[in-house]
Amino acid sequence: MVHPALGTGGRQVTARGENLGVAFSDEDLLEFLGRAGLPDAEDLLDDPAWVKWRGGQAHYYGAA
User: Fold this and answer.
1) Which of 12, 20, 38, 63 fits as disulfide partner to 32, beta carbons 3.0 to 4.6 Å?
2) Residue 36 contacts by C-beta under 8 Å, 6 or more apart in sequence?
3) Which residues pair with 5 in a beta bridge?
């Protein structure tokens, strides 16, 4: 899950309740997903079955 943008920029990323970190770009998000076991996640970023974007536009990482 990609959570809403933080006030300082970036978005918290969690998987199965585990905090993966704060992503500031799709590249960061892909790195976190790869570490979580999804090495070819680029094709999954827009698939709601795999990545859920909460509270804002997908692929936007600017300040809230």
Assistant:
1) 20
2) 15, 18, 20
3) 11
